[in-house]
Amino acid sequence: MLPITEQEIQLNVSVNTPEEAIAYTGSLLVAANKITQNYVDAMIDNFHTIGPYFVIAPHIAIPHARPENGVLEQCMSLVRLKEPIAFGHPHNDKVSLVIAIGGVDTDFHLEMLRDLSIFLSNQTTLNTIMTCSHASDITKLL
Amino acid sequence: MFILTVCGMGFGTSLMMLMEIQDMAKRNGFEVEGEATDLSSSKGKACDLIVAGSEIASEISSETTVIPIYNLLDKQEFENKVLPKIREYFDAL
């Protein structure tokens, strides 16, 4: 079961840059007291220093940092962008779905990544995420 | 067989790739060991195969074969690119 509630989902969010997209997605987890602001800054730093490798599939980015950067609880948040944004990935741009993930340790993290991977590989699920009008439409799929 | 999966930090996409590869290997009757690592720690690590996201793969210089994965959610891509290398390895034993 993925650790996400309606509070950590926002649809049709308008941003202008990848940094804003990451910051917004991270802010949902800060508000839920699951990561610190430092973790948000670390996700953005990682994007600057390492690049957009976390755009794992067409239109899907999973920004993250390391547990020691400020994860308080195993968590994830999901933001669907109103206008897709280019992250600079050679194959998977533009990004319309940003999923911030925070792992407390490798075991919990593996379990969440496995569930997330199964969740997003399901084409019907993905269609719902990309087109639904309420966060509850997504939590119902969990 | 030992497979190294590489991403920017060794704590997200590389773990996803390693899980996918080990699950796929198991489904096909192969036991594959591996480690998920970040780009800088991957240098000089001994392994039989390296798998990385397409964006990171181009930055890896190694004598070991490096397979780039474009869509980490696409099981078919793993089966087309990685499974033949696993078969090759075990056939040669």
Task: Describe the SSE topology.
The complex is a heterodimer of chains A (142) and B (93).
Chain A: E1 9-13, H1 18-31, H2 37-50, E2 55-57, E3 60-61, E4 75-85, E5 95-102, H3 106-121, H4 123-131, H5 135-139
Helix pairs in contact in A: 1-2
Chain B: E1 2-7, H1 13-27, E2 33-38, H2 39-42, E3 49-53, H3 54-57, E4 66-69, H4 75-81, H5 83-91
Would you mind describing this structure in some detail?
- The complex is a heterodimer of chains A (142) and B (93).
- The longest helix of chain A has 16 residues.
- Chain A has a 5-stranded mixed β-sheet.
- Chain A has a single domain, classed as Mannitol-specific EII, Chain A (3-Layer(aba) Sandwich), CATH 3.40.930.
- Chain A has 142 residues and is of the alpha/beta class.
- The mean pLDDT of chain A is 96.
- In chain A, helix 1 packs antiparallel against helix 2.
- With 93 residues, chain B is α/β, with parallel strands linked by helices.
- The longest helix of chain B is centred in the N-terminal third of the chain and has 15 residues.
- In chain B, helix 1 links the parallel strand 1 and strand 2.
- The relative contact order of chain B is 0.23.
- The radius of gyration of chain B is 12 Å and the shape is globular.
- Chain B has a single domain, classed as Rossmann fold.
- A 4-stranded parallel β-sheet of chain B has the order 2-1-3-4.
- The model of chain B has no long low-confidence stretch (mean pLDDT 95).
- In chain B, 42% of the residues lie in helices and 23% in strands.
- The termini of chain B are close together.
- Chains A and B meet through strand 2 and helix 3 of A and helix 1 and helix 3 of B.
